């Protein structure tokens, strides 16, 4: 039994859950009243452990089939399983029976939010807030709905209201900071989080978020100090170690970045994951010998981890040992044929060894995955450009620009592809949004073109981060 799973729960909650697991889940007998079962079910919701949650709901239904509390937990379970129509049916029936029950209003808001009815969800959360119970959670839900509507100003306001209560969830502070960064309200967020940690000086999450904000502002030394405070308060805060490490790596302090990660070896999701992260740092620093050592350690820790196998294969092929790479990437593909990370690694590996057909196939399968990342999309764009597959590149980049309007990365590659397919009007329309330096490298002829050359911007766009990531 992992004792850390109860870190955020009190002793009474811990004992109830253990009693439930030691009796009901093992076929034993022990009477639980409805309030105790509510605590047990809510614990499994909080830790997102669906199998015992389902068993707890079934058990509660056997004992208390007419309980509103139990019916609501069944509805929340259905939402977690994306069975939204069934969940709405249950909650709407309760709403008709108990129109003034704020718990029912809250649950109906959760259900409407899950199906994208954000304005309805907000109205119901407003109603649920009327009794003043668990305002932190209600306000955080409202903030999330506003965020999904791209109303960052209101999202920030309600995240702050949530944090100002005594019932806020630890995830709320991270969501608030991420929203503030997206809304370009970093200075405001710094001021708010500084006041937050003054009021809650032992909040590891607060100091961690302050570090993230300082890093966003380029105040790296302050960020490092804040991360160290977060770790001193809660040595199990693995994300604080990883953000500390990435900040040190960005500053060129490779050895310190590795040390920060290795300090977290007892708190990582797995040693295999930790060693792969260390190897990535060495690979980025072009210290291939040490990178290979840690990629091997990652595989040794978990030989059945397809991501570890794929990472080691990538390291081998990048260091010219293709013979060692191929059995590993094939093994990874057998174990996880639909993994975006494994498919992407296979695509890059086959591209490096000049197998265009295989690389193209694996890239296309990566793009179809729900777990495909923006970095993978950019790498696919570069692959298409490298091999002059301009028509597919144009279609892909145009679709990407719908998601990332005026992106310097896609605008630049799209402009070059337009130019080489003689679509000069289209190229001229994209030129205000390109990275001029990257365009000159990709398509040197365009800066000599009598019509297009005067339109090439003389300064880089403000958001040029996508090129530095590659």
Number of strands: 0
What count of helical segments does DSSP give? 27
Strand-residue proportion:
under 5%
Class from secondary-structure proportions: mainly alpha
Can you tell me about this structure?
The protein is mainly alpha-helical and 470 residues long. It is built from 27 helices and no strands. The protein has helices spanning 11-22, 34-47, 50-63, 68-80, 84-97, 102-114, 118-128, 135-148, 152-163, 170-182, 186-199, 204-216, 220-233, 238-250, 254-262, 271-284, 288-301, 306-318, 322-335, 340-352, 356-367, 374-386, 390-403, 408-420, 424-430, 436-442, 465-468.
Blueprint (SSEs and pairs):
Elements: H1 11-22, H2 34-47, H3 50-63, H4 68-80, H5 84-97, H6 102-114, H7 118-128, H8 135-148, H9 152-163, H10 170-182, H11 186-199, H12 204-216, H13 220-233, H14 238-250, H15 254-262, H16 271-284, H17 288-301, H18 306-318, H19 322-335, H20 340-352, H21 356-367, H22 374-386, H23 390-403, H24 408-420, H25 424-430, H26 436-442, H27 465-468
Helix pairs in contact: 1-2, 2-3, 2-4, 3-4, 4-5, 4-6, 5-6, 6-7, 7-8, 8-9, 9-10, 10-12, 11-12, 12-13, 12-14, 13-14, 14-15, 15-16, 16-17, 17-18, 18-19, 18-20, 19-20, 20-21, 21-22, 22-24, 23-24, 24-25, 24-26
Provide a concise account of the structure shown.
The chain is mainly α and about 475 residues long. The chain contains 27 helices and no strands.
Keywords:
27 helices; 470 residues; mainly alpha
């Amino acid at each position: 039994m992992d004792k850390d799973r109860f870190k955020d729960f009190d002793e009474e909650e811990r004992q109830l859950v253990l009693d439930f697991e030691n009796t009901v889940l093992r076929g034993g007998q022990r009477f639980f009243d409805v309030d105790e079962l509510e605590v047990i079910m809510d614990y499994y919701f909080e830790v997102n452990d669906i199998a015992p949650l389902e068993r707890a709901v079934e058990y509660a239904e056997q004992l208390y089939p007419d309980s509103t509390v139990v019916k609501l937990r069944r509805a929340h379970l259905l939402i977690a399983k994306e069975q939204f129509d069934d969940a709405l049916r249950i909650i709407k029936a309760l709403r008709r029976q108990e129109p003034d029950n704020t718990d029912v209003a809250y649950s109906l808001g959760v259900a409407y939010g899950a199906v994208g009815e954000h304005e309805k969800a907000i109205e119901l959360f407003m109603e649920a807030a009327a009794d003043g119970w668990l305002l932190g959670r209600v306000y955080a839900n409202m903030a999330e709905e506003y965020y999904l509507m791209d109303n960052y100003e209101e999202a920030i306001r309600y995240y702050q209201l949530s944090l100002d209560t005594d019932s806020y969830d630890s995830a709320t502070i991270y969501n608030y900071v991420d929203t503030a960064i997206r809304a370009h309200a970093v200075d405001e967020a710094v001021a708010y989080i500084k006041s937050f940690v003054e009021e809650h000086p032992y909040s590891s999450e607060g100091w961690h978020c302050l570090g993230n904000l300082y890093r966003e502002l380029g105040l790296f030394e302050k960020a490092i100090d804040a991360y160290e405070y977060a770790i001193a308060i809660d040595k199990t805060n693995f994300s604080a170690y990883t953000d500390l490490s990435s900040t040190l790596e960005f500053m060129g302090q490779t050895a310190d970045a590795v040390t920060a990660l290795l300090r977290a070896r007892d708190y990582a999701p797995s040693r295999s994951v930790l060693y792969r992260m260390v190897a990535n740092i060495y690979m980025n620093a072009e210290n291939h010998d040490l990178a290979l050592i840690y990629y091997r350690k990652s595989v040794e820790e978990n030989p059945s981890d397809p991501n570890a196998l794929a990472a080691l294969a990538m390291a081998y092929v990048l260091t010219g040992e293709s013979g060692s790479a191929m059995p590993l990437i094939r093994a990874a593909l057998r174990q996880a044929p639909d993994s975006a990370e494994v498919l992407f690694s296979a695509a890059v590996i086959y591209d490096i060894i000049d197998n265009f057909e295989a690389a193209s196939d694996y890239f296309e399968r990566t793009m179809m995955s729900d777990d495909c990342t923006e970095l993978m999309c950019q790498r696919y764009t570069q692959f298409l450009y490298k091999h002059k597959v301009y028509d597919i590149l144009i279609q892909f980049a145009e679709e990407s620009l719908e998601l990332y309007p005026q992106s310097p990365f896609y605008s630049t590659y799209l402009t070059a592809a337009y130019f080489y397919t003689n679509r000069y009007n289209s190229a001229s329309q994209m030129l205000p949004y390109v990275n001029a330096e990257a365009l000159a490298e990709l398509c040197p002829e365009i800066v000599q073109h009598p019509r297009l050359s005067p339109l090439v911007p003389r300064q880089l766009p403000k958001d040029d981060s996508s090129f530095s990531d590659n």
